[in-house]
Amino acid sequence: MDNNFTKMIKRYSKLILINLLVFLSLIIVSLSVLEFVSSINKSKIQNPGLVFDKSLGWESKPSVLPINKSGEKAKKIAFIGDSFTHGKPWANLTVKSLNTNIRTEGYSLGVSGYSTLQSFLKLKKYFEEINPDLVILLFYSWNDMRDNYNMPGIVYSPNTELRPYLNETNQIVDNFFIPKKNWFRDLEIYRKYIVLYKLKITKLITKFFGIDQVSANGLKINLNYTNEESWIPFYLEEKENSHYVKSSWKATESIIKDLNDFVKGNGKELIIIGIDNAFTVDDDVKEAWVDGIENFDIYKNIVQLKKICKKKKFTLLMVYQN
């Protein structure tokens, strides 16, 4: 009887092994087909003008965009920030306006999706080459403070999944490095499908446990930038002392201080321009996005930025506000 039982076990083991191998083969074939199909549309899912950077996460192409550069002696301005600076006309218009009174050159270092930390690190990288007299940081107070904190982190596309952050003591990590070669992340399947599913899962995790629990427990997960759990708390008075909101602003304040110290330490000037989401100036956007949210203060982030600048004596030039 034991002999029959052994034979039966062997027979079923072979069947299980064969089925497992067939199943794995089907998965490999399916992934290969999906990878081939996805690679055909590769150009459609990549952010135009963004390239990989091992220390910044991603970069603009070109890295530095000169504005009104000439061989003559001129005042130089470095413009840093996110998508409001990257490819947008305001830097060009500023340089053009200033040139009516004083010869001015501009250098745009803006990159879509950048945090304040990434903007600062990029400025340091090109500071000696440009040697600007003035640095202008455009701070978008709807998402920049979120971009500076990684529990949870904010993602805009598969190209913006990895970026540098401050360490646990809000210090800059000088040796931050992203390996360029990662076969799994380089798969078009990963970039087109898996990233989206990961964001759906982390959205459920955040909704179930609450973003404060994610933050307080140090869970380094990513959320899509439009996720309401990640931005609505910043506009609520009852959430201003929550772990997530406080940590995000604390990291931001630390980065701006280091940026200011670096610029001033090189004998130059820093100006911060603060803007907020469109619901501070557009009633239609306000109605669509935030009307109905109890105790929602549309100016709260701008006010918080003002407080930080006043406390640290940073120069805040202007704020877009009704």
Report the count of strand segments.
10
Low-confidence stretches: 28-47
Shape: globular
> Could you give a short account of the major beta sheet?
6 strands, mixed
End-to-end separation: 87 Å
The portion of residues assigned to helices is: 40-55%
Task: Briefly summarize what is shown.
The chain is of the alpha/beta class and 322 residues long. The protein has twelve helices and ten strands.
Q: Can you walk through the features of this model?
A:
By secondary structure, the protein is an alpha/beta fold. The chain has 2 domains: 2-40; 50-319, Rossmann fold. It has 12 helices and 10 strands. It has helices at 2-40, 42-45, 90-98, 116-130, 144-147, 183-186, 188-209, 211-216, 228-231, 243-265, 283-289, 300-312; strands at 50-53, 57-60, 65-67, 75-80, 104-108, 134-140, 153-155, 222-224, 269-275, 316-319. The strands form 3 sheets. It has a 6-stranded mixed sheet, with helices on both faces. A two-stranded antiparallel ribbon has the order 1-2. Helix 4 packs parallel to helix 10 (243-265). The longest helix is centred in the N-terminal third of the chain and has 39 residues, at 2-40. The protein is globular and about 100 Å long. Residues 28-47 have low confidence and may be disordered.
What order do the helices and strands come in, and which of them pair?
Layout: H1 2-40, H2 42-45, E1 50-53, E2 57-60, E3 65-67, E4 75-80, H3 90-98, E5 104-108, H4 116-130, E6 134-140, H5 144-147, E7 153-155, H6 183-186, H7 188-209, H8 211-216, E8 222-224, H9 228-231, H10 243-265, E9 269-275, H11 283-289, H12 300-312, E10 316-319
Parallel strand pairs: 4-5, 4-6, 6-9, 7-8, 9-10
Antiparallel strand pairs: 1-2, 3-5
